[in-house]
Write a structure and sequence with these properties.
The chain is mostly helical. The chain has a domain at 24-101. 78% of the residues lie in helices and 0% in strands. The chain has helices at residues 3-15, 21-58, 70-89, 101-110, 113-144. The two termini are 37 Å apart. The model is unreliable at 97-110 (pLDDT under 50).
């Protein structure tokens, strides 16, 4: 939606002085709301698109994944995001090349055992937090039904 015509409409509506002032003000508020909403939506959409590009880069399977059940797709997105967050917390960089897989395994084995335990504890805590959130969401959705 092009903002210039909308601004023209707003200025036209502001210049109109007739018996329908309240209706005009309501229309102006709706248009201003739509402009703000569209800007926020566009901004969030761009962020989400960038996240998907990064996730597709890390998890090549997402590029060719055919989804027929949207509920399952939502769960898959959450899982991919969790895996992405997990890879960000790793003390080494993940490589997409298969030939470097053994080097990655060797690097992980070289980690201090305390670091491994800390990673395990953080992973368990994160899993429990996510599970508690979904349990809460499921309870709310069951109450609404």
């Amino acid at each position: 939606m092009d903002p210039i015509p909308l601004l023209g409409i707003i200025s036209f509506l502001q210049q109109e002085e007739d018996d329908e002032d309240e209706d005009i003000l309501a229309i102006l508020n709706i248009i201003k709301f739509e402009i703000r909403f569209n800007a926020a939506l566009s901004s969030n959409r761009q962020i989400i698109e960038r996240v998907f590009v990064r996730l597709k880069g890390k998890f090549r399977r997402l590029k060719t994944y055919d989804v027929k059940n949207l509920d399952y797709f939502n769960d898959m997105i959450v899982t991919a995001c969790c895996l992405h967050n997990f890879t960000l917390d790793l003390p080494f960089e993940l490589d997409d090349d298969r030939e470097h897989q053994n080097e990655l395994n060797d690097d992980f084995d070289l980690l201090d055992e305390d670091v491994n335990e800390e990673l395990d504890d953080r992973a368990i805590e994160k899993r429990n937090t996510i599970a508690a959130y979904y349990a809460e969401v499921l309870e709310e959705s069951e109450e609404e039904e």
